[in-house]
Amino acid sequence: MSTSQDPSGFLPAANGGKPPLLKLMNISARPELNDSFGQAVSFSSDRYVVALVDATTAAAAVRSGSNSIQPTFLRLKPENLARATQLDQFKLGALTAFQAAKMYLNDPSVQSFVTSNLPPSLRARLTP
Known about the structure:
By secondary structure, the protein is an alpha+beta fold.
C-alpha cells in the first residue's frame, strides 16, 4: 500500500489486518474529543475515517454479545492521530472491564442469581 493511501500506516492492511488503537489529539473544532480513542477504517481526501472507541460502548457490545452497536465515525487529519501507547491501551481495557462489570452487577437477573446463591447467613445480612 502506498503512503498516499495510508500516509501514517494506521489502516488494518498496514498492521497485519488489525487496526491499531489511535489516540485523538489537537482537535480544535471539537476539543472534547481530545484524548479519546479510535481505529482508522479508511483514508481518502487527506483524512482518515476513524471509528470512535470508548469504554462504555465497548462494554455494551461485550454485554450484548453482538456487533449491532454502531460506532461514531469521524474524518480526521493524520496530524490529529497518534498510536496509543501501551499504557493508554491498558487504561482503556481496564475501564472497559470496569464498565462491563458495572453493567452486569446492575442487571436485576444477575443480582437475583448472586443473592440466591449466597449462603443463608450472608444472604440474611444483605437482603432487607
